[in-house]
Amino acid sequence: MMYIPSAHVDGYAKARAVDQEAADNYIRHTTIGDPALDPITEELSSMRPADLHRFIGAGIEQQDEVLRKAPQILRDFIESLDEPPPWLDFDAFRPGIRAFHANVDLMLIAFVTGVLVEGFSTLIAKSFSITGRVSSTKRRLQQNNRHMLDIFFPGGLYRENDGWKLSTRIRFIHSRIRSLLDKSEEWQHEAWGTPVSAAHLGFAISVFSKRLLEYSLQVGARFNEEEKESVLAVWRYAGYLMGIPETILYTTAAEAEEIYKISYLCEPPPDSDSVTVANGLIQAIPSVASVADPTEKKKLTSLAYRLSRALIGNRLSSCFEFPSNSTFGTLLYFRMKQRVQRTLKGGQLVRADNFSQLMQIAVYDEHGLSYKMPDHVKHSKSASW
């Protein structure tokens, strides 16, 4: 018999009335994490952190001499990552990559004010609240920006490039945080299921892809059908690399939409943790954009709230306790302004400016990618990672 976390009981009943199979699948995944990696994370949990980080980094960076000294179980897992899924088609990514670089400023706006905010309406917000990661929202936003830039960089998802490496790094981090939360007295297993569950990640990747396209169009981006399918293909492979089981990883736009719709029905209403994380995200936008002037900071924050409310709707915005600003004409005015600016600049200059802007608000550490992971469930007590 399938276990139903108590927080999902009411939503599950509603979702089942809409699509029984999809609802069953979502709830089943609330008690699943990463079946392949989680047992390895547990087996290696007593290893000295510096050694574990070094071996994970060696595996991702293909440093064979170092990796040969790693435990066999980790070496076998790393080797399994080299086998691509049978459906992988790198050529299918090209239209989406072109579309991303033509629309990156608008996609970024949609990502931050729509996609990420909406994602925190689920119980995933609990993990951020318990770990205290809300306090590092600026860096998280920068990391999100970098990940998106790297998976949409030409060739970025090839084994040797940063899109692949970052997606795989995220998989290891999710597994580590899942392990820490699983042992925490604050995590309520009976109510919430598995920390950072496959259900929440399957929901998230559907939002990152399908909803990103929808929100980007609303703020002025333009895509043809081939480009839409390609953007979905890029995110699907990134989700696969992040360890999302294929049993809840969409294959088509219609599946992504259904996963989003049913997941949202299964989730309980947003609570105070979702409110805190969602507002922290919006309020971090000026610092990520390096806006320090108090007046300009206030204007940008206000615009972000209005755009977010216009995208995610009044009901969810009210649940998040966003300011009750009128959004009448907000998206229309924003779209018109963007199109005028693009017409005046020309396509090539727009793409150059977009790339430069994204580089500035993404985090690129001086010493390259770090493969350190948290060593304490509380962010404030963990070594830097």
Provide an overview of this structure.
Helices cover 65% and strands 0% of the residues. The two termini are 40 Å apart. It has 19 helices and no strands. Helix 8 packs across helix 15.
> In the residues, how many domains can be counted?
1
How much of the polypeptide forms β-strand, as a percent range?
A: under 5%
Helix- and strand-based class?
Answer: mainly alpha
Q: Please tally the helical runs, counting DSSP H or I stretches of 4 or more residues.
A: 19
Give the overall silhouette. globular
What is the share of helical residues?
Answer: 55-70%
Instruction: Specify Rg, calculated over alpha carbons.
Output: 20 Å
What is the strand tally?
Answer: 0
> How far is the N terminus from the C terminus?
40 Å
Nearest-integer average pLDDT:
90
Secondary structure blueprint with pairings:
Layout: H1 9-18, H2 20-29, H3 38-43, H4 49-61, H5 64-67, H6 72-81, H7 94-119, H8 124-131, H9 137-151, H10 162-183, H11 189-192, H12 198-218, H13 225-241, H14 253-266, H15 272-288, H16 294-312, H17 314-319, H18 330-345, H19 347-360
Helix pairs in contact: 1-2, 1-14, 2-14, 4-6, 7-12, 7-13, 7-15, 7-16, 7-19, 8-15, 9-10, 9-15, 12-13, 12-14, 15-16
